[in-house]
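*** Backbone structure tokens ***
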Amino acid sequence: MNTTNTLLNIGGRVLAAIDDSVYTVSVAAYAAWSALRLDAPLEFLHVLDRRHGQPGAPDLSGNLALGAREQLLAELVQLDEKRGKLAQESGRLLLQQAKAIARDKHGSDSEVRLRHGSLSEALLELEPDVRMFVIGKRGEHADLDSGHLGSQLERVVRSVHRPLLVASRTFKQPSRVMVAFDGSETTRKGVEMVAASPLFQGLDVFVLMVGQVGVEQDAAVRWADKTLRDKGHQVECRLEKGPVNETISAAIERERIDVLVMGAYGHSKIRNLIVGSTTTYVLRTSRIPVLLLR
């Protein structure tokens, strides 16, 4: 079963979405690392969302004279134009910063793109030419101390179909990857992608299946082990019992995992929809990047 091409669009580029948040540096670093290993073009995208940082419409229904009201409206239009120009200049500076990080620290050339509108809509529109997306866990308007994921991330995960690497707050050169495996079609595709993709070439692989021990589960684990070993990976596969969330988190710490690969959608315990699921829990609590697959 050749499913790798459906997950990683051979010939597509790595597209990293950045904003003015603490994740910008790590997003740029993980995007550059991914592009170099995939031998893929790299592009940074910044989307200007007019819903943030703009004042609400003024209430001019009071006793303002007509001339004063018109003057106030004209001043508000000018102020809005100034804010727009400042936002564009800030976006250009962010893109140049990301470009410099990729070039100076990771030796990766890149292109930049500035757009208006919704981030999720922009990524979905650009998706046909994308091999993999990279995005930060939380955006510039998220409360870092709240423990919640950024709303932008939730919308993006719901929208896009290419693999999505959710960057951690700091960059670490990956050497060990873990696949959260449940024997389903999506996680089998994930195993095949890890086995075949140059993104993970030379990395040790740990496959974790959480659930009851049985003939079907044992066969699935053996399949994962063989698939990875046939591509030359050093592999350890394990079937563990216990609460899914806590078992995955404990394995990440115990096995010193650098990147987690897991499904973003589905109906099994590991592949639930992002809201209120194992995916949400892992993204919210994990300090390592997570590669989400659909």
Confidence is low (pLDDT under 50) at residues 1-6, 52-56, 142-147, 266-276.
